[in-house]
Amino acid sequence: MQSGQEVFVSAVVPMFNEEGSLPELYRELKAALEATGKPYEMVFVDDGSTDSTAELALNLCEKDDRVTFVKLSRNFGHHSASTCGMDHARGEVVVLLDADLQNDPADIPRLLEKIDAGYDVVRCWRQGRKDPVWRTIPSKFVNWLTCRATGVKLHDYGCSMLAMRRRVVERMSRFTERNRHVSGLISWTGGKVCEIKVRHRERRHGKSRYNFASLLRLTVNLMTGFSTLPLQIVGVLGILTSLLGFVGAIYLVIKRYVYGVDLSGVVVATAVIFVFVGINFLALGIMGEYIGRIFTEVQARPYYIVESVFSRKRATGEEQQ
């Protein structure tokens, strides 16, 4: 690699069905890393693509010894692929970015300037987001949750592009949970964190893999992975509804036996029952989510499985957690 020099910057790119974006991304990423004047590598992780993404990445690997291509055995998800890339990166600084070209690789030198200024993690705040409203509004809520969970207030936890020092990557490697929010965990590890404004571009090829269900799953992982607050909320709701029911019962008794009011109250009783049943189901759902996380952790399955790792110097198959 690069005349025996130690790698300073590792650019990690998780990919899923990005055949349209990959050639252009490679050219832009290479130009941006060259502009830093530092030894670098590019780590592309194929997260079980069903198009020609893997073939294109392998071709890049064969012609450029600064490219490492990691192929996962199936689709494990964006956070698993990102973690895999970090595990295979060798640089003193690791830069994460998506493959859809909405992150501009030209911003990488600015990230490294902040790293050189002494920061451990440099996050990105997307300006003029090119995403639909159904994504931007929920992401504000997720961002608020992440700030509360990690204790680090930032404007845009949803932006996948960031830079971090090797010691942060090593801290991340100590986490073993299967349902993880990588962006939140990076801030949770501590260190000196800053945020810079970056450009956000239209998606040029294909469609985003993040739909409403994905965002909902991410939100649940965030809420249950960092806090027991949902359980505490259910407990408070239980106390409040119990008090409400007790007060309501006293009120009905007074109206019936003090004022002699005839209480048929079928509608009222039905409404009260529905409220209690709804809260019970909510409580069961939240407890089920925590129990499900325990079940997943007890299984201790690998967070991802690597089918092959390719570079101009090696071709191996291995399993990774």
Which terms summarize this structure?
321 residues, alpha/beta, Spore Coat Polysaccharide Biosynthesis Protein SpsA, Chain A, 2 domains, nine-stranded mixed beta sheet, 10 helices, elongated
Write a structural description.
A 9-stranded mixed beta sheet has the order 7-5-6-4-1-2-3-8-9, with helices on both faces. With 321 residues, it is an alpha/beta fold. It has helices spanning 22-36, 53-63, 78-88, 108-116, 133-150, 166-172, 182-188, 212-226, 229-257, 266-299, and strands at 9-15, 40-46, 67-72, 93-96, 121-127, 162-165, 193-199, 306-310, 315-316. Helix 5 (133-150) runs parallel beside helix 8 and helix 9 packs antiparallel against helix 10. The chain is elongated. It starts with 8 loop residues before the first strand and ends in a 5-residue tail after the last strand. 49% of the residues lie in helices and 15% in strands. The mean pLDDT is 82. Helix 2 links the parallel strand 2 and strand 3 (67-72). It folds into 2 domains: 2-226 and 301-316, Alpha-Beta Complex (Spore Coat Polysaccharide Biosynthesis Protein SpsA, Chain A); 229-299.
Summarize the helices and strands and which ones pair or pack.
Elements: E1 9-15, H1 22-36, E2 40-46, H2 53-63, E3 67-72, H3 78-88, E4 93-96, H4 108-116, E5 121-127, H5 133-150, E6 162-165, H6 166-172, H7 182-188, E7 193-199, H8 212-226, H9 229-257, H10 266-299, E8 306-310, E9 315-316
Parallel strand pairs: 1-2, 1-4, 2-3, 5-7
Antiparallel strand pairs: 3-8, 4-6, 5-6, 8-9
Helix pairs in contact: 5-7, 5-8, 9-10
